[in-house]
């Protein structure tokens, strides 16, 4: 199980996340978010991330010119499109800045089914996404709402590895162990305040994921 911690604004928090073994750390480039960072903040934060930890730039409907400037100014590894971007837009924007990308789909329990989610994933797979992130739909926010969705809507035979997000924390992450997912992503569940992470919550989250991972490991996994 891979772990992404998202929404960093403070240097000590991102250093702690890396020390705890997070696979990826996310920076939010969406000004309305309470977790948004400036280019200058992002430069400082990304410079503190060691080798083998990926820096993810989360954007929401960001115009091309702004994205080009972001990619020029901030070293990051992966783009996370978390808005209304179509597969074609994601493909064009990501290729313009030469980055791998993942797309967040916001699951609406009133409308979505495993088949409709699978079909959307296939479209983003065709467009070149590396992974799909599934988050809860909220009518007033693009993400970071702390809300879960009905996990039975996660398709089993997805065309892309699935990262689960939305309302995860150290208490509930073990419940994800039998889901058909590649990783988990958390923001609010490791915070004391929006954008301010809590070292104890990050540690508890990692322990819960890794404990569960090794309890369920097969011999092949463990090699
Ligand atoms: O964190 C934000 O403020 C945010 C704003 C706009 C889009 C996405 C955002 N966060 C992402 O939302 C999911 C779930 O967050 P949570 O764990 O439920 O708080 C996660 O990918 C965040 O990175």
Automatic annotation (TrEMBL):
Q: Where is the N-(5'phosphoribosyl) anthranilate isomerase (PRAI) domain?
A: 4-207
A GO molecular-function descriptor: phosphoribosylanthranilate isomerase activity
Task: Tell me the pathway.
Answer: Amino-acid biosynthesis; L-tryptophan biosynthesis; L-tryptophan from chorismate: step 3/5
Query: What reactions does this protein catalyze?
Result: N-(5-phospho-beta-D-ribosyl)anthranilate = 1-(2-carboxyphenylamino)-1-deoxy-D-ribulose 5-phosphate
| The keyword Zinc belongs to this UniProt entry's keyword annotation | no
Gene3D superfamilies per UniProt: Aldolase class I (3.20.20.70)
EC numbers, comma separated = 5.3.1.24
**SUPFAM superfamilies recorded for this chain?**
Ribulose-phoshate binding barrel (SSF51366)
Q: Which GO terms describe its biological process?
A: L-tryptophan biosynthetic process
Per the record, the similarity remark reads: Belongs to the TrpF family.
The cross-references to NCBIfam families, in alphabetical order and at most eight, read: PRK01222.1-4, PRK01222.1-6
What's the protein called, per UniProt?
N-(5'-phosphoribosyl)anthranilate isomerase
User: What does the organism's lineage look like at the top?
Assistant: Bacteria, Pseudomonadati, Pseudomonadota, Gammaproteobacteria, Moraxellales
């Amino acid at each position: 199980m891979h772990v992404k911690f998202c929404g960093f604004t403070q240097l000590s928090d991102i250093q702690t996340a890396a020390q705890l073994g997070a696979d990826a750390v996310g920076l939010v480039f969406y000004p309305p978010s309470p977790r948004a960072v400036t280019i200058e903040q992002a430069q400082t934060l990304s410079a503190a991330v060691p080798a083998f930890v990926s820096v993810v730039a989360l954007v929401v409907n960001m115009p091309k010119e702004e994205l080009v400037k972001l990619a020029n100014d901030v070293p990051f590894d992966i783009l996370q499109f978390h808005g209304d971007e179509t597969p074609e837009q994601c493909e064009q924007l990501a290729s313009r800045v030469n980055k791998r990308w993942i797309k967040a789909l916001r699951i609406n329990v009133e409308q979505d089914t495993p088949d409709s989610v699978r079909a959307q994933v296939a479209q983003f797979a065709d467009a070149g996404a590396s992974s799909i992130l599934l988050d809860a739909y909220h009518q007033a926010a693009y993400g970071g709402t702390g809300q879960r969705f009905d996990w039975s809507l996660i398709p089993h035979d997805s065309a892309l590895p699935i990262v689960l997000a939305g309302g995860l924390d150290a208490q509930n992450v073990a419940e994800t162990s039998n889901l058909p997912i590649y990783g988990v992503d958390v923001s609010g569940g490791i915070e004391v305040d929006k954008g301010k992470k809590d070292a104890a919550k990050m540690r508890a989250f990692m322990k819960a994921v890794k404990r569960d991972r090794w309890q369920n490991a097969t011999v092949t996994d463990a090699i």
